[in-house]
Amino acid sequence: MTKVAYGSTRPRRPRLVPQVAALSAAGALAATLGATAGVASASSVHRSSGRSKVVPLVVYSAQGYDKLATEDFSKKYHIPVQLDDNSTGPLLTQIEASKNNPKWGLLWVDGATAFAGLDTQHLLLRGYEPRVSWNSLGLQALPKDKSYVPTGVTLAGAMAYDAAKVPNPPSSWADLLAAKWKGQIGTNDPSQSGPTYPFVAGMMNDLGGIGAGETFFSDLKANGLVVNPTNGPTLAALASGQINIALVQSSAAVGATFSDKNLKVRYLDPVTILPSAIGIDAKAPKQEQVEAEEFASYVLSPAGQKVMQTGDPTGDSLYYPVLNGIAPRKALPPLTGVKTQNIDPYVWGPKENTINAWFDQSIVQ
């Protein structure tokens, strides 16, 4: 393939975002969650009046705080929940395999592309949106047909690195292809890791198309790219010294710095916005759909936001809220200092299976 000058024609910021460990606080954890106007009110969460007899709500989720959230929801609203916690890829495979006889009621994972792909197959309930006060991140993540509900935002393709071994880390995506980084870079398999497909699609979007993106990842492979299934194994490879640079989800990258002070995080220009979201099975029984709507409202309520921000403190809790009045965790840098891009999930979502198959065949193998 023709070589591409990756990103060489786009203007760049004079400098990248400083290392996460040195960043100032983005805001305190929302100690006044119950007082904020940005979250769903109690009356909009629990609408038990006139509700039919409850049925189990089957939740497919890849969120680190999902067990705590479903247990709290079930306790508060007396709705039994059956949680299937797994990586995003296997959960989507399960949905695809059972789409004529679905076994799920609600899906909660990272990546709007996954939900757009399901929506284009008419597998998601449309027209529901909790009564909340969205901030700019939430408004950007809302689909026009209200087929899924954003619950938070992280960044796809954050660069975590060992500063003791990499005192002068790459400053652009093109720099990753330099010979001095040969065999030192790792990332995840997008067919397994939900946050990784938006990273791959984001690179393709930024470079001008699928072909240019395939060339970039092929060149990265030629430079010794190490691919593991998900964030955890990739960061373990970083900790063990198998690699010195990891391209992973921002929440995982920042969380890893808590236990290893040599680890730092940078965001190369641009980094892709990665919404987490909830989608409801369009073919689920009506009562289960009602309960799923209640769960989505709960997640965006004071109680739900508290669980999200505390339930996985070194992982998924490190997200940017999508509601007015809720501040991100202190460890997170303000997004005003990060050059980001939004990719159209309805452009890239339907391409996910094809691109993931190419990645597995051409990059993972």
Structure characterization notes:
34% of the residues lie in helices and 15% in strands. The chain has two domains: 20-25 and 156-272 and 350-364, Periplasmic binding protein-like II (D-Maltodextrin-Binding Protein, domain 2); 33-152 and 276-332, D-Maltodextrin-Binding Protein, domain 2. Helix 2 links the parallel strand 1 (57-61) and strand 2 (81-85). With 365 residues, it is of the alpha/beta class. The longest helix has 14 residues, at 286-299.
Outline the fold blueprint.
Elements: H1 42-45, E1 57-61, H2 66-77, E2 81-85, H3 88-97, E3 106-110, H4 112-120, H5 136-141, E4 148-156, E5 158-162, E6 185-188, H6 196-207, H7 210-222, E7 226-228, H8 231-240, E8 245-248, H9 250-256, E9 263-266, E10 271-280, H10 286-299, H11 302-310, E11 340-341, H12 345-348, H13 352-364
Parallel strand pairs: 1-2, 1-3, 6-7, 6-8, 10-11
Antiparallel strand pairs: 3-10, 4-10, 5-8, 5-9
Helix pairs in contact: 2-11, 6-7, 7-13
